[in-house]
Specification:
Length: 363
Amino acid sequence: MRPFTYERATDPGTAATAVLDGTDAMFLAGGTNLVDLMKLGVARPATLVDVTGLPYDRIEHRADGSVLIGSMVRNSDLSGDRGIRERFPSLSQAVLAGASGQLRSMATTGGNLLQRTRCPYFQDVTKPCNKREPGTGCSAIGGDHRDLGVIGTSDACVATNPSDMAVAMAALDAVVHIRLAGGEERAVPLSRFYLLPGDTPDRETVLEPGDLITGIELPPPPEGAAMLYRKIRDRWSYAFAVVSVAAVVATEADGSLREVRLALGAVAPVPWRARQAEGMLTGHRPTRALLLAAAEAEFAAARPLPRNEFKIGLAGDLIAASVRDLTEPAGPARSTGSTGPTGSAGFGGSTGNGNDFTWEERG
Ligand SMILES: Cc1cc2nc3c(=O)[nH]c(=O)nc-3n(C[C@H](O)[C@H](O)[C@H](O)COP(=O)(O)OP(=O)(O)OC[C@H]3O[C@@H](n4cnc5c(N)ncnc54)[C@H](O)[C@@H]3O)c2cc1C
């Protein structure tokens, strides 16, 4: 690991200036991804500007049912927040499904959204990788790509976005609040925050140098919506997703879907909002045949590689099982749809996805 200097920012303006002025300076939040990448030689900042002291560490529940989550809120505080558990249970589940308790106590909301891919070739500086070093080629396409993307990928890159939290937020129509380097504020829907790789896989988001995420806004969920996050992974204790889904569903009295939002994780370079499938399902009763047809339509444009084609069928089954569970009368993780931090999520203590963590997870 090469030497670096460390600065602690006391206000957003000086943090941005320090990153813009410094040679190869980067923001440091929890450090659980960035410091690992520095040890691997993938990230080589000369200066780290610690932003965890900035005043973005609150979760603000608003009267209209929306919430603003500060970018410095720790993952453990987010997953344990009562209002999040009750009105946005899929988000709490997604956070709890990621990493370990120790990591979640350090990791922040902004840092989680900006964590880098777990593609083994991106992390191995001895191998060509267009994302790490543009123009060198993609080692994964002809190599170990079992865990990598099947849709939205390009000839230059097949890496996936590893964040569980981002998938849940995608299905919740999250909006990313950014303080631009010059001091202006900008709000970008999560659906437009991440960029597909195309020919420039090194560029992953709309952020420019010095731009700081200040918070994530979640609008109120649809009236009466039920939601969940479900993750398939190789190892129970903690592991990145093989495929995951976040589903938000509101039904009519006749069982038809008034609104359905589906986002998929670990299949694409970005949290993948399955809009094609959503369009086919909205207004209909979610039979298994229709759910699988919708998933098939979603993946019509997929470009799987020999060892990750299985993800397409797995994603279809996951979508079908998740919507089925949410539309059955006693389905799990039903959001109360209320606007205050009261009531019960009705699935006390269990994440509904196999994790036995307690909700109150602090430190
Ligand atoms: C063993 C292990 C297992 C893991 N398993 C999972 C998993 O299953 N699921 C999952 O989703 N994640 C998993 N993670 C990843 C973990 O969630 C991330 O490392 C963490 O969320 C990153 O947050 P951080 O605050 O530590 O970010 P940092 O490492 O501090 O920063 C990450 C990046 O974001 C930038 N940054 C940070 N904050 C801001 C901001 N506010 N504005 C602009 N830029 C910013 C930094 O400059 C850096 O580039 C795992 C990590 C480890 C080490």
